[in-house]
Amino acid sequence: MTATATPPALELRDLRKSFGKTEIIRGTSLSVAPGERVAIIGPNGAGKSTLFNLISGRFGLTSGEILLNGQRIDGRKPFEINRLGLARSFQVSNLFTRLSVFENIRCAVLWSLGYKYSFWKFLADLRDANDRTEEVLEMIKLDKRRDVLAMNLTYAEQRALEIGITIAGGAGVILLDEPTAGMSKSETARFVNLIREVTVGKTLLTVEHDMGVVFGLADKIAVLVYGEVIAFDEPQAVRANARVQEAYLGSVLADAQAGGGH
Predict the structure, then answer these.
(1) C-alpha span between 16 and 62 (Å, rounded)
(2) Residue 233 backbone dihedrals phi, psi, to 5 degrees
(3) Domain extent for 52
(4) pTM attached to this predicted model
(5) Residue 233 in domain
(6) 208-240 b/e (C-beta count within 10 Å ≥ 16 → b)
């Protein structure tokens, strides 16, 4: 009996997306293995956020296919894709600012456990939801800040909370859109460690401009230029790729090699 090969965690097949007559994504294909960490880099206007919007269901495809663990998800609504095991964070924090850290995480947990809008249930009695919330708080290092309103957190803490909301449902594939944007060098270093810890055993795609973060976190790098993936390989191979240097990186790669993070 022949063993069935494990499908990619995420597979993009010849994706195309046009807005009117303008083609933004131009035949992008990518195959991400389970447990792999992939950074998507490229110049402004390359289509990185559009690509994330296509994968997460916010935008519909013009053509092509998207598969999550071998199952097609293109054409599905974002909440359906989330329930199939893909979660996404955004460039701008999207929190319930007047709820506590604990309550923000518990909202995400409640949906993942299927409680939805069960107004007749006392939240304090939902032991599975509360236990999972406590677990996530410890993972994101905000257990000591559990009762603080989200609006009163520091910027880095708010980003950490958003990561917690993203992973609260137990999704196996995580999309992070510029997770370290706006952080200081020390905050960035701590946040990269946090991302590494909370995504153990998960598949990660991240859009990131900080080359120090990219080379310190990613197993592979996909370079997107004008809506096309011009390279997809391990960091050292991408660093040495002449086409990548000419099209995008050049001196930025040299700075990263010399140890410059920003």
Answers:
(1) 5
(2) -165, 180
(3) 1-85+198-262
(4) 0.86
(5) yes
(6) bbbbbbbbbbbebbbbbbebbbbbbeebeebbe
pLDDT 10s digits, 73-124? 999 999 899 989 999 987 666 789 999 999 999 988 887 766 655 544 556 6
CA nearest neighbour of 203 among 16, 33, 28, 41: 33
Listed in sequence order, the residues at least 6 apart from 229 whose beta carbon sits closer than 8 Å to its beta carbon are 28, 29, 30, 222, 223
Residue 232 domain flag: yes
Residue with tokens 């095991």: 85
Q: In total, how many domains does the chain have?
A: 1
End-to-end CA distance of the chain: 52
Asked, for residue 134, whether it belongs to a domain, the answer is no
Instruction: Dump pLDDT digits (tens) for 113-158.
Output: 666 555 445 566 678 888 999 999 999 999 999 999 999 999 999 9
Is residue 254 assigned to a domain? yes
Can you tell me the distance from the alpha carbon of 163 to that of 51, in angstroms, rounded to the nearest whole number?
20
Distances (CA, A) of 220 to 21, 159, 205, 214: 32, 24, 10, 9
The CATH number for 233's domain is 3.40.50.300
List all residues 6 or more positions away from 54 whose beta carbon is below 8 Å from its beta carbon.
15, 17, 25, 60, 61, 66, 74
Using CA atoms, how far apart are residues 153 and 142, in angstroms rounded to an integer? 10
Q: What is the pLDDT of residue 117?
A: 52
The tally of CA atoms less than 13 A away on the side-chain side of residue 122 is 2
Rg of the chain in Å (alpha carbons): 19
